Amino acid sequence: MTNRVFVEEQEDIVKRRSSPNEGLNFHEIKEMKYLSNVINESLRIATAKTIFFREARNTININGYTIPKGWKFLSFSWNYHMDPHTYVRPKEFNPSRWDDLKTKPATFLPFGVGPKMCPGANLARLEVSVILHYFLLNYRVEQVNPESKIEPPRNCLVKFKKI
Ligand code: HEM
């Protein structure tokens, strides 16, 4: 079901073109609602183990804990990407959760935050959108060993088929 929606969105975009020679454009990418949900959900889960290193420039107090000036500390994305208050059943891969989800500050940080935030964030999203557009229209994936677990990945082998 999910896969069908994923593919149909791309097929509909191609059908709406006035000529079959037209290539993918930025306007079409912005219309890819479901694909954008898949990217968000993949980023949420795949980057849940990211760690950000920082140094406190001033002494600060967070929820009763003091971090003295000059201390190094690290923040672990797992705490906010897997928070059930923001993401219902957080371990489930569910792109549709992004349909109505309004994330509050510091609940979705796949690219970090503040002045050290990833400068390639938009480029990365754009590249993945272009690749997935052509992939969904031209290829199918088949799991070779369906008995293996996908999350967490355990010897999960797939075959790519050109259609
Ligand atoms: C899905 C793809 C990507 C992910 C998940 C990602 C994630 C991140 C994260 C978490 C940081 C650290 C942010 C922080 O400390 O607050 C970072 C930094 C950085 N990223 Fe990315 N990134 C991606 C793609 C890219 C691309 C495509 C480029 C360049 C074309 C890029 C260039 C950089 C650079 C230069 C920094 C260092 C920024 C600094 O220290 O000021 N990244 N990225």
Automatic annotation (TrEMBL):
Coiled coil: none annotated. Keywords: Heme, Iron, Membrane, Metal-binding, Monooxygenase, Oxidoreductase, Transmembrane, Transmembrane helix. Heme binds at residue 118. It is found in: Membrane. Pfam families: p450. GO terms for molecular function: metal ion binding; monooxygenase activity. SUPFAM superfamilies: Cytochrome P450. Its cofactor is heme. Belongs to the cytochrome P450 family. It is a single-pass membrane protein. GO terms for cellular component: membrane. It comes from Solanum stoloniferum. InterPro entries: Cyt_P450 (IPR001128), Cyt_P450_CS (IPR017972), Cyt_P450_E_grp-IV (IPR002403), Cyt_P450_sf (IPR036396). Transmembrane segments: none annotated. This is Cytochrome P450.
